[in-house]
Amino acid sequence: MPIKVICVAGARPNFPKIAPIMRALGAKERFEAKLVHTGQHYDDALSKVFFDELGIPRPNIDLGVGSGTHTQQTASVMTLFEKVLEDEQPQVVLVVGDVNSTVACSLVSSKFRLKQPFTCTRGTRDRPIMIHVEAGLRSFDNDMPEEINRKVTDCLSDVLFVSDPAGNVNLAKEGTKAERISFVGNVMIDTLLAAKEKAMSSEILSTLGLQEGGYGLVTLHRPSNVDDPEQLEHIIGVLDDIAKQDVPLVFPVHPRTRARIEDAGIAMDESRWFMTGPVGYLDFMRLMAGAKVVLSDSGGIQEETTVLGVRCVTLRENTERPVTIEEGTNVLAGIRRETIMPAWEASIAAEPSGRIPRFWDGKSAERIADYMDEMFSV
Ligand code: UD1
Ligand code: UDP
User: Fold this and answer.
1) Is-above-0.90 flag for pTM?
2) What residue ranges define each of the domains in the chain, with the CATH number in brackets?
């Protein structure tokens, strides 16, 4: 009997992370990997496009939870995911990243008892092995919902696959036993490297009438930046000044942010702003690669720009991905005018330098699958 692995994905940043893992597990005879889509993100532009472009197999199970408050969303995933575990009786549950779907499925799996115990190198057990991919990241900011999700998921997971060297340090400081931790590199970068050639032939620049290196690329969706109308208006005002002085800004707008811009009645000058809905993964990579600078509050985009060698100005007070600053092209700009403008100026003053962090080499998912294979070699 193959070892059954339930892989979970729910929101946009999960899809490029789960894609190479599904592929790598599929290449091992030992495993039967099934994909559960929680439905946290459901718009085609935030979900289906990734399956189409990245060749992710269609989810075996779609929970269809949709939007809600944190509690509603987490609770819905938990209730429905428990039923999945009852039906599937998996030996392994694998979650990625730091969204509500991640923590919800970790909580359920950690307390779930299987009908049949199984044996692996960790002994005989009657609950699934919980695996967290992208473990150990910490912003040290509990106002960020993702920070709670990361800490809880890490605390509950049996195996912690780390992408950023800081992850090892953070987990060790929290007293995590070394045998639970493995530094495997960054699965999101597996996807980027695999898709880069295809992305570079995207025609998005000519479609939008953009010149290579002649625009800035903006994304915003952190609740701390967009949910408060004054804060949102302030950040857009600072970005608008950059657009006036330097380059037009392309802004693929996340639905959360679109709603807040409309609610706040913020009008953008169309001669300086190219507003679109969220764009597909390949078009977005082409936009990043051709940008003079990316200005964003995203987590994953800090990593992708590092590998593409494009400057990234992060519109946040902290980052859980410090390697992108220490080794990559990222600069932490904060959210005040007095800090964003100097960060922007410093960022455009020099050619982006930076190197690719260790193990961000396209082989992280293979390392994960090899490690898991080893775990069941008993
Ligand atoms: C979620 C994650 C965040 C991640 C982001 C990536 C949590 C707590 N947050 O934030 O970590 O960085 O995804 O994009 O898990 N909506 C749509 N269509 C959709 C999905 C959402 O219109 O397909 C709208 C709904 O109005 C919803 C709002 O966007 O209320 C927010 O969606 P939600 O998944 O709750 O949080 P995100 O801000 O997307
Ligand atoms: N992304 C995309 N289209 C967009 C914006 C982002 O394909 O319009 C991709 C981006 O390249 C990265 C992922 O979405 O792979 C990051 O998601 P997001 O910024 O929403 O989440 P975070 O990383 O902040 O959790």
Assistant:
1) yes
2) 3-186+360-375 (3.40.50.2000), 198-349 (3.40.50.2000)
